[in-house]
Design brief:
Layout (H helix, E strand, L loop, with lengths): L11 H8 L9 H7 L6 E5 L5 H8 L3 E6 L2 H13 L5 E4 L13 E7 L8 H11 E12 L7 E6 L6 E6 L5 E4 L10 E4 L2 H10 L4 E5 L14 E7 L7
Parallel strand pairs: 1-2, 1-4, 2-3, 4-5
Antiparallel strand pairs: 5-11, 6-7, 8-9, 10-11
Length: 240
């Protein structure tokens, strides 16, 4: 087995308890809408962690392979699969350098709330494109790069009580420490401009066909989006 590392390795138990301790699977209507009807399709969940997105895909009728670089997170996924079998296969694999054995073997790929925690975007997107059959689809979600930047915060208007999002250092791409991130998430994230994401997808033969910016629960995320979702469609001949 390759010697892989993951920023989530030491946080695996806390992350598992924080996102899906009972193994019910992901609950996200926006994700479901973008994925669509996957009954009978072979779908990969890249950077699947403890498997909540993989379990949701299986419940939607897909034949699922989950991949993650954290053995500790995968141990939770294995255990939950044994307790409530859904036919999910889990592999210890690095999204930045996936095996050639997976080339053109999936109808769809998802990467749920993980691209911003992976150091190298370009090889990751290239690996995902290579995994897809011609015409295959890719659905992902990320922290919104326009409103979660290396320097951000919230401002309260003391006249009307409204909360506003303030951002800075948007053009400073690369790793940054985010002390306000939830305790179950790595301290270090990787900021990229929105154009970097879009141009990378296009360069690797994965043009975006739909984007969604849902309204959040907190007041500040009801004025600007905190999460960005997108669906890509692989061109007949990807750049790889």
């Amino acid at each position: 087995m390759p010697n892989l590392t993951s920023a989530y390795e030491e946080l695996a138990d806390a992350y598992h308890e924080g996102v899906d301790p009972e193994g019910a699977g992901l609950s996200d209507p926006t994700f479901d809408s973008l994925v669509g009807d996957v009954r009978g399709e072979r779908v990969a969940a890249v950077a699947c962690g403890q498997g909540r997105d993989a379990r949701r895909l299986a419940d939607l009728g897909a034949r699922v392979v989950g991949l993650d670089a954290s053995e500790s997170l995968l141990s939770h996924a294995y255990r939950l699969e044994q307790q409530a079998p859904r036919g999910i296969e889990y592999l210890h694999a690095d999204a930045q350098n996936l095996s050639d054995d997976l080339t053109a073997s999936f109808d769809g790929v998802v990467c749920y709330m993980a691209l911003m925690d992976i150091p190298d975007l370009e090889p990751t997107v290239r690996s995902i494109a290579r995994m897809l059959k011609p015409g295959g689809w890719f659905v992902a979600s990320i922290i919104h790069p326009c409103y979660k930047t290396p320097a951000d915060g919230e401002l309260i208007d003391y006249v009307d009580g409204s909360t506003r999002r303030i951002v800075g250092r948007y053009f400073d791409e690369g790793p940054f420490t985010s002390p306000t991130r939830l305790a179950i998430l790595p301290r270090v994230s990787y900021h990229r401009m929105l154009s970097t994401y879009l141009n990378t997808f296009m360069a690797e033969g994965l043009p975006i066909v739909r984007m969604v910016e849902p309204v959040g629960d907190r007041p500040v995320w009801q004025t600007v989006p905190g999460i960005l979702y997108f669906r890509c469609q692989r061109t007949p001949s990807g750049a790889w």
